[in-house]
Design goal:
The protein is of the alpha/beta class. The chain has a domain at about 5-175 and about 215-240 and about 280-295: 3-Layer(aba) Sandwich (Rossmann fold), CATH 3.40.50. Helix content is about 35%, strand content about 15%. The longest helix has 22 residues, at about 85-110. The structure holds nicotinamide-adenine-dinucleotide and uridine-5'-diphosphate. Uridine-5'-diphosphate binds near residues 79, 187 and 270.
Amino acid sequence: MIHKRILVTGGAGFIGSHLCERLLKEGNEVICLDNLFTSTKDNIAPMMDNKYFEFIRHDIIQPIHLEIDEIYNLACPASPIHYQYNPIKTIKTSVMGAINMLGLAKRVKAKILQASTSEVYGDPLAHPQYEEYWGNVNPIGPRSCYDEGKRCAESLFINYYFQNKVRIKIARIFNTYGPRMHPNDGRVVSNFIIQAIQNKPITIYGDGTQTRSFYYVDDMLDGLIKLMNTSDEIIGPINLGNPSEFKIIELAELIIDLTNSKSEIIHLPLPEDDPIRRQPDITKAKSILEWQPKISLKEGLVKTIDYFERLMIEGDL
Ligand code: NAD
Ligand code: UDP
């Protein structure tokens, strides 16, 4: 039985492809929209034969007319290397993409969820980060195309809600990892795993005392779908992340241990404006969504290491 027709923008990406799979499994019809900027059709190949799955190659900075019940707006490069490659395009994707998707939601009265980010808190002065904290973002720094683009998208969402009664949800997503992370996107989990399984030096930027809070993609999807399914008065923003905070050096040591790697650790310069600490306060997610991550970092890393080891064996690394 088909429940809903759901549009996933950025549906061929790391998180998007897992989301499409999950929504199909739950009995929905899924339209995956993506311009394949940071992904390939490989991520969605297993779904291509499913008659309830449809792929549209499209750039969300252009309007599109579709008949749908819900939109998950994920289209946006997410890793610093990718979003800094063409910063103006990143801003256009966040801002014009949000305008186009909100306009579509308004026209067909769809519910729409924005994949926002912990980056809206910038290099936070409040710790852990709670939703009422306004953030500490450098508006002209190298991360601003992403951070400010996402902040503007949140503003668009809230204003379409107040002005046009569009049914919105804003999720502030913290560092997510798992299979299908792009091997070349430079994010810390994929970098360290690939370096470790190849016995190459593990590249820690700075002294490695900066922290992040990582959660596994399956946990993240549980939270995201729960948020979409809340009643209309729940609009967020709601933090989705793991309150366990790790130093980057601890992550490196854990990955070396789990892969029995011979890699040495080397230190490279810390990128400009790299946030020093990041940890979500998930009180809201716990009480409103009855959600919290279940998969430990070790358990999630083992699954992710398996994935990258398979890629290496198949010659895709
Ligand atoms: P990803 O790069 O793997 O996926 C993004 C997808 O969007 C890609 O398939 C890309 O081709 C597509 N895309 C980019 N620009 C587009 C455009 N103009 N039109 C259509 N498609 C476009 O990244 P991800 O990690 O899967 O992130 C998905 C979303 O979640 C992003 O919006 C990101 O900001 C957000 N998010 C991710 C994390 C994380 O840790 N992965 C954390 C916070 C927020
Ligand atoms: N990092 C690192 N080595 C790498 C890649 C990243 O030490 O090879 C650090 C990076 O400087 C940052 C943290 O790991 O402090 C997380 O980086 P990532 O790009 O994964 O995500 P973000 O900075 O957007 O949270």
